[in-house]
Specification:
The chain has 124 residues and is mainly α. The chain contains two helices and no strands. The longest helix is centred in the middle third of the chain and has 88 residues.
Length: 124
């Protein structure tokens, strides 16, 4: 159990004990009534501590479950992302080849135009 959780539980326990003690000692009662009230307060405190413990266990189980689900979701997203990248690469690959072919054709045309401009003009 973490330090903060222990501190909260200790605070609840000490607060309950102090409240019960102050209430019992400040109320005028006979010894028998005081003992019965003290026993009742002790039982209530035990029940409260048991409930806090059970809620802590439940919270821990929920955190573990959420962590597992988060890991699974992250793995699924990573797998989907990898597949999307592979698909994108497959889709883009033919276009890259077409662009290379077009650039080569443009370069040939530019070279031809350069050659044409170097030739002297024919006189008519």
């Amino acid at each position: 159990m973490k330090k903060q959780q222990k501190s909260v539980l200790m605070g609840i326990a000490v607060g309950s004990i102090v409240t019960a003690a102050v209430t019992l000692l400040s109320t005028p009662k006979s010894g028998k009534e005081l003992r019965l009230d003290l026993k009742d307060s002790t039982n209530k405190l035990k029940q409260t501590m048991l409930e806090v413990k059970q809620e802590g266990i439940s919270l821990k189980e929920q955190i573990v479950q959420v962590s597992k689900e988060g890991v699974e979701a992250f793995k699924e997203v990573a797998t989907d992302l990898k597949e999307d990248i592979r698909t994108w690469k497959r889709d883009v690959e033919p276009n890259i080849e077409n662009i290379k072919i077009d650039v080569e054709a443009i370069n040939e045309t530019v070279t031809e135009l350069q050659e044409e401009t170097k030739k002297p003009l024919a006189k008519k």
